[in-house]
Amino acid sequence: xxxxxxxxxxxCLDALSCATTAxxxxxxxxxxxxxxxxxxxxxxxxxxxxxxxxxxxxxSWFARNTGEKPLLYLHSAVSSAQLxxxxxxxxxxxxxxxxxxxxxxxxxxxxxxxxxxxxxxHPRCTPYDPASGEEAQAIVLAGLRTLYVEGQPGFYYLALHxxxxxxxxxxxxxxxxxxxxxxxxxxxxxxxxxxxxxxALEEVVQAARLLEEDWKITAQLWSCPSYTRxxxxxxxxxxxxxxxxTAPKRSCHLRDCLAGNAAPVIAVTGYPxxxxxxxxxxxxxxxxxxxxxxxxxxxxxxxxxxxxxxNALAEEGLIDARQVDLAINRYALK
Length: 334
Description:
Keywords: Pyruvate. It comes from Pseudomonas gorinensis. This is Pyruvate dehydrogenase. There is one protein chain. By secondary structure, the chain is an alpha/beta fold. The chain folds into 2 domains: 3-159, Thiamin diphosphate (ThDP)-binding fold, Pyr/PP domains (Rossmann fold, 3-Layer(aba) Sandwich); 179-330, Rossmann fold. Helices cover 44% and strands 15% of the residues. It has 13 helices and 10 strands. The strands form 2 sheets. It has a 5-stranded parallel β-sheet with strand order 1-2-3-5-4, sandwiched between helices. A 5-stranded mixed β-sheet has the order 6-8-7-9-10. The termini are far apart.
């Protein structure tokens, strides 16, 4: 990375500083960002649909453009093989935004199950599943700063859906969202904690409403744009603590967020359950991971989330198990 690259990235950040994302979807927000960056002429904006920017034409195209600029690539990769080829062409640099979730597909979130696993295990990838336009904007801006101003290696990946969300973010929320999670609802006390990522967050919000209206159970809600980033930091922290037994113990963002309460934690993703399973070893409370295939082929519905939250409370002896059976019948889940 050169000084010119950092200067171009800063000009991109300046051009995007006045953008608004109120009630916009992640897809709409990133498309708006792409248009702004194209107009600024300070970034490479690659659109998968463009005939002049096809992947198989990249080697010769980049050969004519040797000076690095910030790279925003809009694509529709279905498989890990496609994504692997894409990252090879970009030398594992840039901000890669996948809109495949908005296309008709038999796969959860439009991708083959191998793709999210590939993202979670790729050491140079920082994957995100933003729930709102504000989250998506914060992630893209962070990617520009981290990769091109600070010059850190790797690439960012965003899964984009086209459903608007009106979740406002404070400055602290934006910072915490980049670390993997931030609170969106919760009073001074609650019975259960519900975590959601991407489009699945809406079902989590509706499950909290069902729990309160139908069962008088209060829920604290968290948006989790990156379960993988949470798990990686937790694993790194745990390893450091093992190697430094006499030093003060370090904590991680996941444990900091969930500290001080023993209420069960229900974590939901639209990807297969394995993505949320990454957190299990680092949650100091009853933990339930839910994803596509956990209880139904698609992402768990609000009714399943509510029932499994009740079941976690029953297993803790906090409510009567008969309430779980009542809920299953009430929501016609048998």
